[in-house]
Amino acid sequence: MANAFEYAPAPESRAVVDIKPSYGLFIDGDFVDGQGQSFKTINPATEEVLSEVAEASESDVDTAVRAARRAYTRVWSRMSGAERGKYLFRIARIMQERAREIAVLESIDNGKPIKEARDFDVPTAAAHFFYYAGWADKLKYSGFGDTPLGVAGQVIPWNFPLLMLAWKIAPALACGNTVVLKPAETTPLTALLFAEICQQADLPPGVVNIVTGAGATGHALVSHDDVDKVAFTGSTDVGRAIAKAVAGSRKKVTLELGGKAANIVFDDAPIDQAVEGIVGGIFFNQGHVCCAGSRLLVQESVAEEVMDRLKRRMSTLRMGDPLDKNTDIGAINSGEQLKRIRELAGVGDAEGAERWEVACDLPTKGFWFPPTLFTGVSQAHRIAREEIFGPVLSVLTFRTPAEAVEKANNTPYGLSAGVWTDKGSRILSIANQLRAGVVWANTFNKFDPTSPFGGYKESGYGREGGRHGLEGYLKGTDA
Amino acid sequence: MPSTRIDVRKTYKLYIGGQFPRSESGRSYVVNDAKGRLLANAAQASRKDARDAVQAARKAFPGWSGRTAYNRGQVVYRIAEVLEGRREQFEAELRASEGVTAVKARTYVDAAIDRLVWYAGWADKITQVVGNANPVAGPFFNLSTPEPSGVVAVVAPRGPLLGLVSVVAPLIITGNTVVVIASEAHPLTAITLGEVMATSDLPGGVVNVLTGSVSEIAPWLASHMDVNGIDLTGVDDDALARDLEVAAADNLKRVRRPAPGTDWLAEPDLDRMTAFLETKTVWHPIGV
Which residue ranges does UniProt annotate as crossing the membrane (chain A) (predicted)? Predict the structure, then answer.
C-alpha cells in the first residue's frame, strides 16, 4: 500500500524569510542587547543553526516589566477601547499581509509541516487578533467589567509558537493590559518577527515586550513583584511550579497544561470519518498538541476493523521535509523531546503493549519519530497515563458506554475528549459525562477565536478564547 | 412553678455524609459564649475526619451534580424554608455565641435565609448567564456550558450563620459538593445548620461540616489530591494562606482567596459561583 502515489517534491521557498544571524530582546519598542548569555535556535528538520538569540537575565526581565508598567500607566490604560482595538486590527492585518513569510519561518523554527503553519497556525493567530480587537471597545458587555489588571507576564510553549502568542497577547491588549511575553527557547523566531509587526503597527513602545530565554527567564518573569497577571501554557509540572511560585501573591493566574485526551469510537460511528479524526487527533503537529487524542478508546466489536483502516490510513501519511507542501508529518521539535518520546515508547514495549509503526525512511539529520500506535494497552500502562507529546497513539477497548466514560475520565488530566457515534442522544449523554474542557463530537482538534479552550482538573484553570477568554485579563465586576 | 427541670443539652458533633458522628479522634474543645462562660464542647476534627468528609463529598458528587438545576434550586430553597421555621433557635444561638443584640441576630438570620433564596434562584440561571453559543468560523455547532469543579473545601469566615451560608450556598447551587471548616471561634451554629440541611432533602455528603482548628485541618484539605478547589475566605493569616495555596498547587486546585473585608449583608457577586465552575465547550459538525 505504501507509495501508491509518488509525489514530486513541492518545496516552499525560503526566500521570503530573512533570518538575522542574531536577535536581541524586544523591550520598550526597540530591540536591545540582553545582559545575559545567548542561545542558538536550530531547524529541527536539519539541525542547522538558524540564529543566536539573547537569553534574558533577571535584570533584563525587570527592565521589560518596568517598560510594560510605564506603558500601562502612561499610555495603554488611558487609551479608549476603540483606539486600542484599532492597533489590534492593524496587527491582525499585518499578520495576514505577511502570512507567507510567517508560515515559512514557523515551519523552519518549529519543524511543523508548511501546510499546517500556512493553513492553521498563521490564519488562526490573525483571527484571534481580529476577534479580540472587536472586544476592546465592548468590554462593558463582557460580564467581567472593563477594568484591566495591569502588567501580564506570559510564558508560551514551542508547539504553536505564534498561535500561542496570539492567544496570550490579543485578549491581554484588548482588555487594556500591557505584556511581557517569553517564547519557548526552541522556537523564539516568530515571536521576534511579531515584535517587528508591532513596530510596523506603531504600537506604543512598552505595550508588548518579548524576552527570550529558557526556564530561568520564565521563572524571573512569573515571580516578578510588579506582574499582576500570569498566563502560562505548557506542561503540568511547570504549571504546578508556577502555581507554587505565585502562591500568596494575589496575582491572577491562568494555566493551560497537559492532557491525555480520550478519543472514543462507538460501533455505530462512521468509521472512515472516525479514522480521519483519529489520525488528525494524534498526528496533527507531530502529536505536539496538549489536547491531542492520545488515548483511542474503541468499542470492542469494531476494534479490528478500526485498527485495519487506521493502519492503512497511517501508511499514506507523508513524513519528511517540513517545507514540502505535500508533507503531513514534520520533525520532532527538539532532540530533548525526541528523547522523551523514545523513552516512553520504550516503556510501552517493556510494559507489554504491542508497537506498530509506519514503515518509512527517516531522514538522517534532524529529529524524527514515525507515526506509531500501541495496541493491547491497559489503563495502568504509563503510555495510557502520561502525556507523550509526540506521534504515539495508545489504543484501549471498551464494551459499554459506561465503561468508555469510566476509562476516559480515569486520568488526572481533563483538557479535551472526542466521541464518535451516529446516535445524537448518545453524543450528548457522553459529552455531559466527560470531565474535559473541550469535547469534540464527530470531529477533533477544531479551534476558533470565539470558542473557549482550557481544562478541568490538572489540565489547568482559566479559559482562552471567546468571551470567556476575557475573564483572565479583567478585574471583574467587584473591582 | 419553679423551674426544677434540668435542660437536655445538645451534643455538638460533626456533620459528615449526612450523619452526625463524633470526631474519630475523640477530641473536643471548649466553646465559650460572648461573656466567656462555657457554651458547649465542640468536636475537634482530625485529619481522618477531614478525609472521611472528602470521601463523602466525592461520593455525593455524581448524584448531586447530575441532578437538574431546577431540582438543586428546589432543595436549596427548602433549606431556606426549614431555616425560617427554626429562626428562633438560630437567633438565640447567635445572641449567645456572639453576644449580639436581638435586632442584630434577627438581621443576620433574615439575611441568611434571603441569601439561600437568592442562590436558589440562580440554579437554573447561571448557565444562561455564563454559558455561550460560540459563532465559530465553520459549519459547527459550538456551545460552552458551566459545570461544577467537583469537591470544594471551604474555610468559612467568622459570621457563624450568614458567613457560612454565603460561602456554602453558591457552591452547592452550582453542583459542587463541599467540605467546610466552620468558624473556629463560633462553630456551634454550623452544626445546627447541618441539622437544617439534613432535614431539607439535601443528600448526605453534599455539605460536610467540620469543627476544630483551621490551622490543623485546612492543610490536609489543601493537599488532598481528591479535592478540586479550595475557598480560603476564612483564612486571616497571610502565612497560612500562602502555605495552603502552595499545597493546593500539587493537583492544581482552583483557589479562591477574596480580599478581606467582605460585607456579608451586601448582595454578592457571581464570582463565588464562577470561581468553582469549569467551562465545557462541545463541538459538533453541522451537515446533512
Answer: none
Query: Total domain count for chain A?
Result: 2
Q: Could B136 and A446 be called an inter-chain contact, meaning their C-beta atoms sit closer than 8 Å? A: yes
* B 117-156: CB under 8 A from A: 129-130, 132, 134-138, 140, 142, 144, 147, 149-150
Cell of residue A384, nine digits? 495510557
Nearest-5° Cα angle at A148, B143 to A78: 130
CB contact under 8 A, A441 and B282: yes
Chain B neighbors of A247, CB-CB under 8 A:
242, 245-246, 248-249
Q: Is B185's Cβ below 8 Å from some Cβ in A?
A: no
| CA B190/CA B188 separation, integer angstroms | 5
The CATH number covering residue A162 comes to 3.40.605.10
Q: Are residues A235 and A275 in the same domain?
A: no
Beta pairing, strands A38-43 & A48-54: antiparallel
A253 and A350 co-located in one domain = no
B279 and A437: CB-CB below 8 Å? yes
Chain A interface includes B47 (CB < 8 A): no
Q: How far apart are CA A399 and CA B252, in angstroms?
A: 32
> So what's the pLDDT on residue A479?
46
Q: Kindly state whether residues A74 and A87 are assigned to the same domain.
A: yes
Closest CA to A419 of A281, A246, A245, A219: A281
Instruction: Identify whether residues A423 and A332 lie together within a single domain.
Output: yes
CB-CB under 8 Å, B282 with A457: no
Helix runs in A264-363, H state only = 271-283, 300-314, 335-350
Q: Is residue A377 part of a domain?
A: yes
Q: Which of A243, A250, A463 sits opposite B249 (nearest CB)?
A: A243
Q: Is the domain of A419 the same as that of A278?
A: yes
Where residue A310 sits, what CATH number does that domain have?
3.40.309.10
On whether residue A92 sits in a domain, the answer given is yes
Partner B contacted by A405 (CB < 8 A) = no
Cell numbers 504549571 label which residue?
A239
Q: Which residues of B touch A468 (CB under 8 A)?
A: 132, 144, 279
B206 grid coordinates: 453534599
Instruction: State whether CATH 3.40.605.10 applies to domain B28-285.
Output: yes
Q: Write the ipTM.
A: 0.94
Please report the number of interchain residue pairs, chain A to chain B, with beta-carbon separation below 8 angstroms: 116
Separation between Cα atoms, residue A71 and residue A62, nearest integer Å:
14
Q: Examine the domain organization and report whether A464 and A430 are in the same domain.
A: no
Q: What is the pLDDT of residues A351-387, one digit of tens each?
A: 999 999 999 888 999 999 999 999 999 999 999 999 9
Q: pLDDT grade, residue A123 (50/70/90)? A: very high
Q: Is A475 within 8 Å of chain B by CB?
A: no
Do A466 and B246 make contact, defined as CB atoms within 8 angstroms? no
- Domain around A71: 22-257+459-475
User: 3-state class of B259 per DSSP?
Assistant: coil
The verdict on A237 and A300 lying in the same domain is no
Q: Give residue-wise pLDDT tens across range A394-412.
A: 999 999 999 999 999 999 9
Q: What is the pLDDT of residue A1?
A: 45
Establish how many alpha carbons lie within 13 A of residue A349's alpha carbon, considering only the half-sphere containing its beta carbon: 10
pLDDT of residue A478: 62
User: Does residue A449 belong to any structural domain of this protein?
Assistant: no
Residue type at position B223 = S
Residue B189 CA from chain centroid, whole number:
13
Residue A80 forms part of a structural domain: yes
Note the pLDDT tens digit of each residue in A343-353: 999 999 999 99
Q: For the whole model, what pTM was predicted?
A: 0.95
Q: Is B69 on the interface with A (CB under 8 A)?
A: no
Co-location of A403 and A469 in the same domain: no
Residue entry with cell 491582525:
A92
Extents of the domains making up chain B: 28-285
